[in-house]
Amino acid sequence: MKLFWIDAFASQPFTGNPAGVVPLDAWPSDELMRQIAFENGLAETAFFVRTGADRFHLRWFTPTVEVDLCGHATLAS
């Protein structure tokens, strides 16, 4: 599994809002995604799966729960 650490809203390194970004071919279990987010130790980790030529499905996890939306993790994705 690839994991990217992206600083959204940043104009220089080590600034902005950090988010984990994990591109996937298929969805793993919710618990595995939560555990990955916990291991990252970031406020949010975004997971996405391509669903079409220009379409993606995103999900966002904090270290403890899935959330409905996260702006900076979406931008990072």
What is shown here, in short?
The chain is of the alpha+beta class and 77 residues long.
Question: What keywords describe this structure?
Answer:
five-stranded mixed β-sheet; 39% strand; alpha+beta; 77 residues
**Low-confidence region ranges:** none
Radius of gyration: 12 Å
Q: What's the story with the biggest beta sheet? A: 5 strands, mixed
Cα-to-Cα separation, first versus last residue: 15 Å
Q: What is the approximate shape?
A: globular
Q: What is the count of helical runs?
A: 2
- How is the largest sheet built, in terms of strand order? 1-2-3-4-5
How would you spell out the order of helices and strands?
Answer: EEHEEEH
Write the layout of secondary structure elements.
Layout: E1 4-8, E2 17-24, H1 30-40, E3 45-52, E4 55-61, E5 66-67, H2 71-76
Account of the protein in words:
The protein is of the alpha+beta class. 22% of the residues lie in helices and 39% in strands. The chain has a 5-stranded mixed beta sheet with strand order 1-2-3-4-5. The longest helix is centred in the middle third of the chain and has 11 residues. It is globular. The mean pLDDT is 96.
